[in-house]
Amino acid sequence: MNKQHLHRLLSRYRSGRCTQKEKHLVEQWFALIDTDQTQSLAQENKEIEERIWSAIQRDYRSVPAPKGRVISLFFSWRSAAAVLLLAMAWGSYQFTQGRLSGKQLQATLQQRMTVKTNNTVQPLLLILADGSKVKLLPESSIKYPVNFIQSKREVYLSGKAFFDVTKDPQHPFVVYTEKIATKVLGTSFWVDAAKEQNGVEVSVVTGRVSVFERDQNGVSEGEKLNNGVVLLPNQRVNYMTANQSFVTGLVPEPIMHEAYQEAFIFSDTPLGQVTVLLEKAYGIQILIEDEKLRNCLFTADINKQPFLTKLEMISSSVNADYKIVGTKILLSGKGCPGN
């Protein structure tokens, strides 16, 4: 590895002719030295290259030579660049015949990650580098980068946690469990993989969430939505491990939008208007199967009642029944007297 090889690598990056792997490594290096490669001027390039080269020289001198072997420094410049950039990013490296083995590379990459396990009996609050908050429940673990420097903000969960994600449309936030991936831009939601051998549950409090099945290599197939679902507030999905399917439904206790806290006082209000208000307040679609119900009148103050109690009071007062079908509510019945 010499200055010429380094110059060639950076030149290929600036001209957009490097491979994806080379691009990834160079961008990581720039991020770690607090230099914005997209804003560097041409006259700054030589200074930046000198800084990189000086750092490389320091790392060469700091790595002890292995006993009993002579390692040539004249290996492929691409392999050298990859090794050196990884060394600068993560503080140490090992090489054999000029390249990292698979296990060595995996161990080096893991040094960039932080792993937290909640061994207490109380939820553990974590704040990630982007400001996102994670409430990690007992007997759960999460692995995440010290800094998010990729195009996606990726974390890995085992157990159960609540995520309140800082909005960043340019950098989606993805939570991986063993079987599924949950992708958001900025929202709050639960992921429960405590018993993942049986299934995983994702439930949404605010925002929009996409949940996908991961393939055998652990990569999310979600961009294609071949096997996945999109969830809205108060919706949940259970991924059934046995048959690799998604079953959607409503959360057990839907949460009302704050703007409708005092909106549920009715006096001879037609059922059609009552259900429209419920839909707006909870984001849940309510279908009236029998049109004769729509004009039935409802009178009550149900502000303090939870969602399902509201439904019970409304349906019983108009001689109707409700049932939950997936993420929808169906109202049906004989209707009020005189209709």
UniProtKB/TrEMBL annotation:
InterPro entries: FecR (IPR006860), FecR_C (IPR032508), Ferrdict_sens_TM (IPR012373). Gene3D superfamilies: 2.60.120.1440, 3.55.50.30. Residues 264-330 form the Protein FecR C-terminal domain. Residues 125-209 form the FecR protein domain. GO terms for molecular function: sigma factor antagonist activity. It comes from the Bacteria. Pfam families: FecR (PF04773), FecR_C (PF16344). This is FecR family protein.
